[in-house]
Amino acid sequence: MFKLITPNTDNQLKKYYHFRWQMLREPWRMPAGSERDEFDAMSHHRMIVDGRGRPMAIGRLYVTPDHEGQIRYMAVKSNRRSKGMGSLLLVALESLARQDGVKRLVCNAREEAIDFYERNGFERRGDLSDERGPTRHLQMVKPLDPMANVLRKPEWCTDLQERWAHHIPISDKMGIKINQYTGYQFECSAQLNPNLNPHNTLFAGSAFTLATLTGWGMAWLLLKERSLHGDIVLADSRIRYRHPVEQNPVAQTSLDGISGDLDRLASGRKARIVIHVTIYSGKNGRRRVYRYVHVIAELQVGARFKIRCLSWLCLASLS
Asked: N-acetyltransferase domain: which residues (predicted)?
């Protein structure tokens, strides 16, 4: 199981900085403490951990006064490389940069990491440095398209919307639409009027359908991001309706709300991921229907993607 987190507790921060030193400084016999700098307190930090809370990958974003996003201290555990962990971190850090109004990302990539950054949209600037040291660096830049704040992959979102319309016609009748996909966050909404109950608020079944499709869609997009293929299978569902929704419902999920182990899927085995979805009453409303919806998706490689109510496994609950 993996989970993307923001290290906040003393224990998490201790593991975060120790991993940074272990991966980026210890191999060059640099002392503990050399992994930190004066910008850490002003930066965004993200870490991917396993089921026991042990770091598997880390990265940092610092936004300069000139609104430039500097990516530093990217590291992935050696036995987790080439499995999408680094790309997942970059997507999360890029989304944070967009929220802060950053127009481009900059990094000084180690020579052996240049191909990785190029695969993730970075461009070379200049030549490899001539500095003395254990490794040479190359400055790389990624301009951020403002339109990608709305749809990172418009063609994927169109494909997903069409799959819903074809395989689950009721989604079109409910007015369920994809609002946003940034690679980090996925948001869908529905029309209130076609989904009213006798009290003129949102029908609970419609709310659950919206939440389920949002979790399903995020699972599908996550597979696309990592070039994986397989069935998404759900079974069992429970729901507790907390408060009435009086405006158009909006469902949101993000990488921070996902845990699981896609490495198993990449190796041809079944995998499981857990996706948390939150429903809002209106675009700027407070949390209404669910505090959390837990969508547990079982993924199987080698089969065609199916959208059938009976082929789902979904567990919804409230904390």
From this structure: 1-145
